[in-house]
Amino acid sequence: MVNEFIHLLLPESKWLKAGFSWCLELKPEITLFAQTTTLAHQATCPACLKNFMAAKADSGHPLREYSQSDALRQSLVFNTPEIVARFCRSMVLEPQRQLECLVLNVKRRLIAKKTITVGTLTSILIHPREIFHFVISQNGHGFILVQNQPSGEVEPDAEDFKATKNLVKCSELIQVEFYDHIFVAHDGYYSQREQTRLWL
Prior knowledge:
Pfam families: RadC (PF04002). One of its GO terms (molecular function) is metal ion binding. The protein is an alpha+beta fold. It has two domains: 2-64, no CATH class; 77-195, 3-Layer(aba) Sandwich (Cytidine Deaminase, domain 2), CATH 3.40.140.10. 44% of the residues lie in helices and 18% in strands. It is built from ten helices and five strands, in the order αααααααββαβαββα. A five-stranded mixed β-sheet has the order 2-1-3-4-5, with helices on both faces. The protein is globular and about 35 Å long.
């Protein structure tokens, strides 16, 4: 029943459906939502979907994403783009582009996480000062930036490349590790560290 619900709710996103299925295996309580009403109603009722997403965001609710639990946050080592993309997978549901900063310690474990800025459907302004102020204020050794792509095109545009190149230069001057800039969309992720030569 739950798998059928996921198929109805997310018919065009194999990557996101896989993420929800993974969450279901770890958090069976998520089936509470699927049991409250009919599948057809859940898949088409805006109020139901709104309540579902609100429950997921509530830190005290059993539908809370497993990836955001305090225990996992402390144990995760953010050393691959896939781990980061899984951890931030809920960003793909946002209707506007957002930039999140994950501040890490020397062992690449999470110290703090913050949404730095919110843009429009297709564009976002990235200010290095805001990013480095947050990282330094948290006594971070380094950071990873994660940006969603509501348009569905996971690859960054020319402005994204320009912003990342500028941030790499700033991080070298300030001597703070800039590990990666990762873009997430419904069907996958894109790591600028892996796919470009900006860090060379």
